[in-house]
C-alpha cells in the first residue's frame, strides 16, 4: 500500500489519513497512528462504487473495516446464503444503491457475482458477492480476514492469477504455466509465473511482450521461472511450497545482465536493488520489469532527492525507465533535474521557514489593527 511505502515521521501536523484499496496491516496502522491524527480505514470494491464501510474508531494493533455507510447494507453469509453468527467467518455480501448492475459484456460473471437479494425489500433487488472473508465482531464492526477465492490484490488492483496462466498457455512456446503472488521479502509483493516450455530455450521478453499486448500492465508478472515440470501434490494440484523463489536472473526483460557503468549508474543500481529487494540489476533493464511499480517509483524520487540531492519529476522517471537512460539524462541535468548540496537544501528550507514566520506575524498584526 501507499502508507507502507511512505515515512510518517515529520508529519505531525497531518490531521487525517484515510486508508483504502488495500488491507491495512497492524504494523502500518501503528506506524501512522498519532494522538492528534484521525486514522480511517475504508473498505469497498469497485463493484459497489468503491467504499461500503469505514472504521473511524481504529485500534492500530487490530485494524478493522468498521461499519457500513448509511445507504449500504452488509451481510456475512455462508455458502447457502444464510447469515453467519457474530464471531464466525463468512463471505461478505453488499447491497444498496451503490451496487453496480453487472459487468459489461460478461453475463456469466455478472450472474456469478450479482445475485438476487435473499432478503430483498423490493422486487429485482441485487446483492453483490465480494469473495472476501470477514466476520462480525461483538462491537458491530467488521474484521477483514482475506480472500475466499484465488483472486489477489496487488498495488490496489484485483488480479486473477489463473487468467495470467491461461493466457500464457496460448503462447506457442508454452506447454503449461502457473502464476501466483509471492512475498519473498517484507512488503515486497510481486507476481511470478512458472512456465514449462515446449522446446529448449527461454525468452521471457517475448512472453512479457505477448502479455502486454493482451492485458493491462499491472497484470504482467515481474518474474518468469522456467521449469521442466510443475511440482504437484499427491492430489494432482500444483505444490506452491515447492515452487522456487525467483532471483535476479529471472527478473527483468530477458536481455541479459550488463553491468552498470560509471558512478551514477552504480549509485542508481544500488538504490534500485535496495528498494526492489534485488542483488543486482543491469544497466538496460527496465524498472517496471524488475519488480518496480508506481508506488516504488515515488520512493525512488524521494531517495534521489534525499540521498543525491537530485530533484527529478515523476514523468522523467517514467520516460527513462532504465539505469543507462536515466543516468544519461541526469548527467545532462536536463528535464527538471538538478543537483543541490545539503547546505543549499538547508539554507533554502530556513529561508522558507523565515518567510512563513514573517507572513504569520503580518497576518496577526493585520488582525489586531
Explain this structure.
With 369 residues, the protein is of the alpha+beta class. It has 3 domains: 2-149, ANL, N-terminal domain (Rossmann fold, 3-Layer(aba) Sandwich), CATH 3.40.50; 153-246, ANL, C-terminal domain (GMP Synthetase, Chain A, domain 3); 262-338, ACP-like (Non-ribosomal Peptide Synthetase Peptidyl Carrier Protein, Chain A). Helices cover 29% and strands 21% of the residues. It contains 10 helices and 14 strands. The protein has helices at 2-5, 26-32, 107-113, 161-168, 204-212, 262-276, 294-308, 314-319, 323-331, 342-368; strands spanning 16-19, 38-43, 53-55, 67-68, 73-77, 90-95, 114-116, 126-136, 142-147, 152-154, 157-159, 174-185, 188-197, 223-226. Strands 5, 6, 7, 8 and 9 form a 5-stranded antiparallel β-sheet that branches. A 4-stranded mixed β-sheet has the order 1-2-3-4, with no helix packed on it. A hairpin with a 2-residue loop joins β12 (174-185) and β13.
User: Total number of helical segments?
Assistant: 10
Largest sheet: 5 strands, antiparallel
Shape: flat
The run of helices and strands is HEHEEEEEHEEEEEHEEHEHHHHH
Q: Give the overall pLDDT as a whole number.
A: 84
Number of strand segments: 14
Number of domains as seen in the coordinates = 3
- The radius of gyration computed from the alpha-carbon positions, rounded to a whole number of angstroms, is 25 Å
Kindly, what is the distance between the CA atoms of the first and last residues, rounded to a whole number of angstroms? 49 Å
Architecture of the largest domain, CATH level 2?
3-Layer(aba) Sandwich
Strand content: 15-25%
Which CATH class of the largest domain applies here? Answer: Alpha Beta
CATH topology of the largest domain: Rossmann fold
- Helix and strand content put the structural class at alpha+beta
Catalogue the unreliable spans.
334-346
Helical residues, percent: 25-40%
CATH level 4 superfamily of the largest domain? ANL, N-terminal domain
GO cellular component, one term: cytoplasm
Protein name: Non-ribosomal peptide synthetase
GO biological process, one term: secondary metabolite biosynthetic process
InterPro entries: ACP-like_sf (IPR036736), AMP-bd_C (IPR025110), AMP-bd_C_sf (IPR045851), AMP-dep_synth/lig_dom (IPR000873), ANL_N_sf (IPR042099), PKS_PP-bd (IPR020806), PP-bd_ACP (IPR009081)
